[in-house]
């Protein structure tokens, strides 16, 4: 089963201590897969995942394993891990250094392994951005390892509840070389997340060629469960050793489970008391109320405001306007799907500067501004 990956960048903040968030989940399901050159087969699958995220959003580490048991009695085992560390370079520029490694084994007949290091340069605005990337590493199948070099360029765009990506990469693995052009998108609405990738492999020497595409739909069933349906065709990945194929998968995801949660921030006892920056906390005050499933209602008290917006890691840092509460002229409300754990938020009233709202722990961000930090138990 293939995983559709979309890149997400969040503004980092400085938080005391390295009490990062560690989460885990597991997917179990059934799949119908046909690798190129092989007969189609059904299989049962189980895929555990674990992820650690730096409390300030500066980096992450993740690991995933997949076990497939085929109808024939053969089995496939795959494991991978990757991580990245981000650093601000200028107002709209950010650097990223990443590492990745993995290994797989099919029925004790074929085994693969790879390791690589990535460097990326990102340029970002509130709702758009792009990147340049270079990857160096090694890939091994059977004989000795082969050198890996990948050069890539890409761009992303946010529009309301949609995220769109376009990328072009050129890969060299030993004597094999190919170019992939990909376009991907993600759409979120209430309990549903739709993701899709369409691409083409061209200018290939030993890596195959043609059009490919994948799609998935995730339906949240409750706080700790989701139904995932996915299907598509993917090309050969010479770096990781996966063969081209097509598949249809249905799975249930259980999680996310918080392994370690940072301590709750100290909230002001007087809701109108000022924070570390004086009067700004008096102008806005945040209240958080959990609802059904992962729905959370945010209420922002902003006396005298005519328009209020929020931006946070749970909105992909996209500004979202709040609606006025008919019961109170000073209250502005909106509901979001927010997972348990540590989150970052900023608010803006009447088109003014972004600031941390009262009722959150205030912290400096990477660009000499400030951000509010709160924990959802």
What are the SSEs and their pairings?
Elements: E1 21-35, E2 41-53, E3 59-70, E4 75-90, E5 93-106, E6 110-124, E7 128-141, E8 146-159, E9 162-173, E10 176-189, E11 192-205, E12 210-222, E13 225-234, E14 245-260, H1 280-283, E15 285-290, E16 295-301, E17 308-312, E18 320-321, E19 323-324, E20 331-337, E21 341-349, E22 361-364, E23 370-376
Antiparallel strand pairs: 1-2, 1-14, 2-3, 3-4, 4-5, 5-6, 6-7, 7-8, 8-9, 9-10, 10-11, 11-12, 12-13, 13-14, 15-16, 16-20, 17-18, 17-21, 19-20, 21-23, 22-23
What does the model show?
Mean pLDDT is 81; it is low at 1-19 and 258-282. The radius of gyration is 23 Å and the shape is globular. The chain has one helix and 23 strands. A hairpin with a 6-residue loop joins β19 and β20 (331-337). Helix content is 1%, strand content 64%. By secondary structure, it is mostly beta strands. The strands form three sheets. It has a 14-stranded antiparallel barrel with strand order 1-2-3-4-5-6-7-8-9-10-11-12-13-14. The chain folds into two domains: 21-259, monomeric porin ompg (Porin, Beta Barrel), CATH 2.40.160.40; 263-376, Immunoglobulin-like (Sandwich), CATH 2.60.40.
């Amino acid at each position: 089963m293939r995983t559709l990956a979309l890149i997400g960048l969040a503004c980092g903040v400085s938080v005391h201590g390295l009490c990062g968030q560690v989460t885990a989940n597991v997917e179990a399901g059934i799949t119908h897969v046909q690798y190129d050159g092989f007969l189609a087969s059904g299989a049962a699958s189980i895929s555990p995942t674990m992820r650690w995220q730096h409390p300030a959003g500066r980096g992450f580490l993740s690991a995933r394993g997949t076990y497939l048991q085929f109808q024939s009695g053969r089995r496939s085992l795959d494991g991978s891990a990757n991580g990245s560390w981000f650093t601000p370079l200028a107002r709209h520029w950010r650097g990223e250094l990443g590492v990745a490694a993995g290994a797989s084994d099919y029925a004790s007949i074929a085994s693969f392994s790879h390791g690589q290091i990535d460097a990326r340069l990102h340029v970002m605005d509130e709702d758009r951005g792009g990147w340049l990337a270079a990857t160096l590493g090694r890939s091994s199948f059977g004989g000795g390892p082969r050198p890996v070099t990948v050069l890539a360029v890409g761009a992303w765009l946010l529009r309301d509840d949609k995220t769109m990506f376009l990328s072009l990469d050129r890969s060299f693995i030993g004597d094999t070389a190919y170019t992939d052009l990909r376009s991907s998108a993600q759409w979120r609405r209430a309990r549903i997340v739709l993701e899709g990738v369409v691409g083409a492999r061209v200018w290939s020497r030993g890596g195959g060629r043609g059009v490919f595409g994948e799609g998935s739909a995730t339906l949240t069933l409750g706080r700790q469960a989701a139904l995932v349906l996915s299907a598509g065709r993917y090309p050969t990945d010479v770096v990781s050793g996966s063969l081209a194929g097509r598949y249809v998968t249905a799975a249930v995801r259980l999680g996310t489970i918080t392994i370690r949660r940072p301590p709750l921030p100290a909230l002001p006892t007087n809701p109108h008391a000022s924070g570390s920056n004086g009067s700004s906390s008096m102008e806005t005050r945040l209240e958080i109320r959990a609802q059904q499933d992962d729905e959370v209602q945010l209420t922002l008290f902003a006396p005298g405001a005519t328009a209020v917006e929020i931006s946070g890691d749970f909105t992909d840092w996209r500004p979202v306007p709040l609606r006025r509460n008919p019961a109170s002229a000073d209250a502005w409300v909106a509901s979001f799907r927010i997972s348990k754990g540590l989150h970052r938020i900023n608010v803006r009233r009447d088109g003014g500067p972004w600031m941390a709202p009262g009722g959150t722990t205030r912290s400096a961000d990477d660009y000499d501004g400030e951000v509010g930090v709160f924990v959802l138990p």
